[in-house]
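Researcher: Predict the fold of Dihydrolipoyl dehydrogenase.
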Amino acid sequence: MSESSMQTLNVEYAIIGAGTSGLGAYSKISRKTDSLVMIQDGPYGTTCARVGCMPSKLLITAADHAHHLATSDFFGVPASGRVDGRKVLERLRRERDDRFVANNLRYVDKITAHHKLEGRARFIAPGRLRVGESVEVNAKKFILACGSRPVVNEVFEPVMARVLTSDTVFELEDLPRSIAVIGMGVIALELGQALHRLGVETTIYGRSGTINALTHPAMQQEALGSLATELDIYPSGQVMSTWEDAEGAWIEYEQSNGQRVTKVFDKVLVATGRVSNVDRLGMEHSGVEFTEAGVVTVDPQTMRCSGHPVFIAGDATDHLPVWHEAFDEGRIAADNALNYPEAVPAQRRPPLMVFFTDPQIAIIGQSFRQLEGQEIVIGDLPFTSPRHVVWNKIQGRIQVYLDARTGVILGAELLGYQAEHLAHLLALAITHSMTAEQVLSMPIYHPSAEELLRDVLIDAREKRRRYLITLADHAITTV
Ligand SMILES: Cc1cc2nc3c(=O)[nH]c(=O)nc-3n(C[C@H](O)[C@H](O)[C@H](O)COP(=O)(O)OP(=O)(O)OC[C@H]3O[C@@H](n4cnc5c(N)ncnc54)[C@H](O)[C@@H]3O)c2cc1C
Ligand SMILES: NC(=O)c1ccc[n+]([C@@H]2O[C@H](COP(=O)([O-])OP(=O)(O)OC[C@H]3O[C@@H](n4cnc5c(N)ncnc54)[C@H](O)[C@@H]3O)[C@@H](O)[C@H]2O)c1
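Model: C-alpha cells for Dihydrolipoyl dehydrogenase follow.
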C-alpha cells in the first residue's frame, strides 16, 4: 500500500471494539464530542448477544425444559418427549438473532456513520493506529475494548475439524451424538450440563480437580459432588493426545492417579479459558510501559494504563470478565478519557458472578479465600428450605461470611437451585455494607426461597454471638 493511498483520520478519541464495553464508552464520549471513532473488527452485535451470555442461556433454557420432562414422574406427572436437536438450535439462533443481536444492531445502525470504522486496529506508533491495510488513525486518547477469544491448546490440532468453542457451538445444525467438554470452568459446566440434558452423551474433562470459582473447600467439594451425580466428569488430569479416525475424535486423558482413559466423540468442545485480544494490538508500539512480566497494568478505578491516555476496559482487562463489569468499565474508561489527565476514580461494585448450572453457583463480595485468616464467622447451611422441598430441589449449600466484630456481611458462596436470586439480595446487602441484623429486619414470606437467606443469617448471627462471648471471656481472663 503506497503512502498516498493511505487514508488518515485525526480524532481526539479512538475506541477499539464495539462490544458491550466499547459501546458503553461510545455512548458517553459521543455525547461530549464529534471527534471520535469506534473501530470494529468482525461482526457487530457483541460477544454477549452473538456467542456468549444470550445463546448460552437460550440453550440452557431448552435443556431445563427437557430436564423437567425427564424428572416430572416424581410429581405424579409422567411425561414423554423427544429432543429435536435441529429445532432446539434453530429456535436458539432465531431468538438470539431476532431479539438480542437485532436490538444491538439497531443501536449500532443509529450511530453516526463517520464515528464507525471497520477493520482490525493495531498500534504502529504512540498515538497512531493502522486499521486494516489502508487507514491510519491518529488519536489523542485510546480505549481498548477489544474483548477476548477462546484458547485452544495445540493438543487438539489433530482433531481440529471436530473442535468447537463457544464461538462455533451455537452454529451447529443439529446436536451431536456425543461430545467431550474440555475444562471445568463456567462455559464447560453450563454448556456441558445443557448438552447432557438435551440427550448428548457428554463427558467433561477438568484439570485442577476443583471448581475454582468457589473457594471454600467444602463448597468446592459439594459442587463437584453434586454435578458429578448427574454428569460424567473426570475432574483432574490432562488430555495427553488426540487423533481422528472414521469413528470420530479420540481423546486420551491421564487422570491425576495415573490411570488413562481413551474415548471417542463426535465433537470436542474446548472451554479452557479465554485470552485478552490486547496481545494482538501491537502494544509494544503504543508507548505504554510493561511490567517485568511483560504485561500492561490497568488501574481498576480509572481503567488507565500507567500515566498514558490509554485505557483498557471489559474482557480485554482479564479482570472479572462478565457483562455488567464490561459495561461499567467502558463507562469508567470514557469518564477518565474525557477528563484526562485528571483521574476520575470510580467506586467499583462488589464482585458478583453466577454460573447458570443446576444447581447454580454464585459468588458475591469477598471470597472465603480472600477472607481466610481474618476475623470472620460463617453462616453455613444446606441449600434447602420448605420451598426447596416443595420444588424437590434440595441439593447444595450456602455460606455467608460476616465480619465477626461488626456483623457486616462481607461475602458469600452459594450452590443451589436458582441461587441467582439470593445472590442478588446478598449483593445488595454487601453493596450497602449491611449487617446480618439489618437484613434480618426485612419481612420474609413463607414459604419462599428467601427463608433460606434468613436461616443462614441467623446461623451466622448465632456464631458471631458465641464468638463475641469467647472474645469477652478471653479479655476478662487476660486482664
Ligand atoms: C459462552 C459465554 C457465555 C457468557 N455468559 C455470560 C453471562 O451469562 N453473564 C455475564 O455477565 N457474562 C457472560 N459472558 C461474558 C460476557 O459475554 C463478556 O464479559 C462481555 O461480552 C465482554 O464484552 P466486551 O465489550 O469486553 O467484549 P466483546 O463484546 O467481545 O467486544 C470486543 C469487540 O472488539 C473486537 N475487536 C477485537 N480486536 C479488535 C481489533 N484489533 N480491532 C478492532 N476490533 C477488535 C471484537 O471483534 C469484538 O467485537 C459470557 C461469555 C461467553 C463467551
Ligand atoms: N455465567 C456467566 O457469567 C458466564 C458464562 C460463560 C462465560 N463467562 C465468562 O467467560 C469466561 C471464560 O469462561 P471459561 O469457562 O472458558 O473459562 P474459565 O477460566 O472459567 O475456566 C477454564 C477452565 O478450564 C480449565 N483448563 C484450562 N486448561 C485446561 C486443559 N488443558 N485441560 C482441561 N482443563 C483446562 C481451567 O482449570 C478452568 O477450570 C469466564 O471467565 C466468564 O467470565 C461467564
